[in-house]
Structure formats: C-alpha cells, structure tokens
Amino acid sequence: MTTIIHPIDGAALEHWLTTNIPDFAGPLTVEPIFGGQSNPTYVLRTPTKAYVLRKKPPGQLLPSAHAIDREYRVMSALVGSTVPVPRQLAYCSDRVVIGTEFIVMEHVAGRVARDPQLPGLEPSERTAIYDSMNAVLANLHGVDIAAIGLTDFGKPQDYCARQTARWIKQYRASETGRIAAMEALIAWLPQHVPANQVATLVHGDFRLENLIIDAKQPKVIAVIDWELATIGDPIADLAHSCMLYHLPPTAFGGFVGTDLARLGIPDERTFLSAYCRRRGLDGIEDWRFYMAFALFRLAAILQGVYARALQASASSPDALERGAKGGICAECGWAIANGQ
C-alpha cells in the first residue's frame, strides 16, 4: 500500500525549510516511510540532498505521547558520542506549517531490518549485526548524561514503578475491550517492582527495526525513533530488546520455536551474557519482572496503535493488524510472570 496516511503541504514545508535550514534548495518531494507505528516519518528529497522528517500524528493524542521535541533534544545531545544517531537539523513547534510539530534530520543511508531473522544474509553476518546491536545498547547505557546535558531528561528514581503506573494509565486511555492477560499483569506488576534499580539514559524502544545498518558491513550506524527515551532503568531497555525470544513468529517475527543457532542469531542467554560483559555486570536480577513488564508495555503501546487505527489517525497502513497483536504480547507477558 502506498497511500499517504498523513499528507503534508509540500509548498509550505519547502518554504519553511528554505528559511530554516542552511543550504537547503528545492524543488522538494515528500515520500512517506512506512513501518513505524507512532510518529509519521518521511524522506524529503531535493536534487542534491535527502533529509528525514518526523512529525506528531494528527488528532487527539494520549498525554506525553509522541514527544517530537524530546527526540530532537536527545539525538542532538548524542551526536559525537559512542551512540550513532542522525545529525539533527531543525525543530519546528509551529503547528501552522504542516499541522503538527516536526523535526528534520540528516538522511542516513543504510539498511533497516523489518524481519528480525535477517533473511538473505549469511549466519556470520547475522551474528555480527546482533553483536553490534548489543554493543550499541551497552554504550548507550554507559553514556555520561551530565556530560551531554541530559541530567534533567527524566527522573532517576522509581523508574519501574512510575513506568508501570504510566503504561497502565496509557492502556486504560486507549482501551477498546477487555484483555484478561492485561488485567492480570496490571494486578501483578506493581507488586513485583525490583527494589534496586540503576538509572541511565534509555532508548525506550531499542530493537533491530529502530537501527540503521551499514549498506555493506554488518554494523549499526544509527539509532532512530527516540520518542520514548528518558532517564531510566537500563535493564528495562535490555528486556525490551529481548522480547522476540518470548514471542511466537506470528507476533513480529518472534523467535519461539526458531533454530537460532542455524541462523547465526544469538540466543537470549548469549545476548544477555554479552551485554553483562560489556557493562561489567555479574548477572541480572528480577529478569522475570523486566520481561513481563516489557511485554505488558508493548501490549499497551499496541493498544494505542489499534485505537488510533480505529480513529483513522495511525502512522502505518498495517496499524490495525499490528495493533491487534497486543493480546498475544499480554498473554506471553503473563505466562512469564507466572513462571512459565
């Protein structure tokens, strides 16, 4: 499907870009990028350059969601760090230009993996890509937030308790029907929040699809989609990146039942061991909570996607189908909480 879900006034945008981005010169063409489920994203092309634009979706939005300004701030702060990000060029808070706030950044040419099994690659390439992903995540959690000016980017205390409460609230705000596993998790999670938590910069949605891989080498060259970034618990970030180990292939290409060794993809134990080695950790406590929470949060996010699809304000043409998978994620999360 090639329908533009959120059409943009190209003439108004081109005028704004000409005024606000040095060396910008049209004519401009605007192409939507499908795949993401939250902030609509577009490639902006001129005769000599390409850019990327991300904007808030139209319509009524959940409180604190789609934080384009926060995306712009965190990526701007990370430029030049050990975490590769696109260079930020401009932020526009004026909704008059194209209807919502938006940011413009450089276009990073490379590969985006929509299928986590990375079809068409050699096992050694898959191994290298997942190892690069692991290294970038460990580097992210080692960033000195004071040195890059992000000490006020979030509250370091009680992250898991606050996030649990937040996503229960977000889920309730977009709820369209009763999901038994979500109700069970809503009761279980607040009672099992870990006592000891470390605070670092976290991405919030760190997974293969939100990474750009070099066109020729099996190496991550950019981390994108930072709208959920904050100061928080790095193990929650790690758990989010490991959800596929607990999901079936019918849910976003989950790895349950997959011969990962044949593919060259590390299993969960190997991935966690590599992360611990890079971060200097002896092991990970309370993994059952973190994984159950990760799947609960994903289910809550998907519920929001599903609700926006019903309102015809989603960012992707397959939003209705993807959003409906929230129930599967909730069931997998509740199975983990039960020790299954």
Note the main attributes of this structure.
single chain; 340 residues; alpha+beta; Phosphorylase Kinase, domain 1; Aminoglycoside 3'-phosphotransferase, Chain: A, domain 2; 11 helices; 11% strand; globular
Structure description:
The protein is 39% helix and 11% strand. It is α+β, with helices and mostly antiparallel strands and 340 residues long. It has two domains: 10-106, 2-Layer Sandwich (Phosphorylase Kinase, domain 1), CATH 3.30.200; 123-337, Alpha-Beta Complex (Aminoglycoside 3'-phosphotransferase, Chain: A, domain 2). The protein has a five-stranded antiparallel sheet, covered by helices on one side. It has a two-stranded antiparallel ribbon with strand order 6-9. A hairpin with a 6-residue loop joins strand 7 (211-213) and strand 8. Helix 4 (159-174) runs parallel beside helix 9 and helix 5 (180-188) crosses helix 11 (326-337). The mean pLDDT is 90.
Class based on secondary structure composition and strand pairing: alpha+beta
Looking at the structure, the CATH topology of the largest domain is: Aminoglycoside 3'-phosphotransferase, Chain: A, domain 2
* Average of per-residue pLDDT values: 90
Q: Class of the largest domain in CATH?
A: Alpha Beta
The number of helical elements comes to 11
Q: What spatial order of strands do you see in the largest sheet?
A: 1-2-3-5-4
The structural domain count equals: 2
Instruction: Please count the beta strands (DSSP E, at least 2 residues each).
Output: 9
Radius of gyration: 20 Å
- Relative strand content: 5-15%
Low-confidence stretches: none
Name of the CATH homologous superfamily of the largest domain = Aminoglycoside phosphotransferase (APH), C-terminal lobe
End-to-end separation in angstroms reads 39 Å
Oligomer: single chain
CATH architecture of the largest domain: Alpha-Beta Complex
> Helices and strands, in N-to-C order?
HEEEHEEHHHEEEEHHHHHH
